[in-house]
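Morning, I've got a small favour to ask if you have a moment. It would help a lot if you went through both lines with me. Thanks so much in advance, here it is.

***
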Amino acid sequence: MSVGTSQALEFGAGQLRLSCPQFGTELNARLADGALKGSYGSTKDGVHAFTAFAYCTCTYEGDAGPDITGNWDIAESGWRLTLQREGEDTLATVTTSAGKVGPLKAASTD
């Protein structure tokens, strides 16, 4: 299993850029209207658009939020997102033609 570590990080004026040379990928996104919108990928495997929202713990769903575990196919990309629970943590693994990235775990803000 491979775990990627970003090698370059730039953030300014609402623009985020992360580079992960180990996988030849780059993430470019802009913070707008409470969401991070941008693209992730490489010239080899393609660049894919994404939108990310802040995580919200909804007390009626429990401290870990809604249960969204399972395998999710990412349309037209050939990628698969696998989500699983470990206690109150939700872990994500992305599988691409280049292999697996993850499991990824959000850092605690506590």
Observations:
- Residues 78 and 99 are 12 Å apart (CA to CA).
- Strands lie at 8-12, 15-20, 25-32, 35-42, 46-53, 70-74, 79-86, 89-96, 99-105.
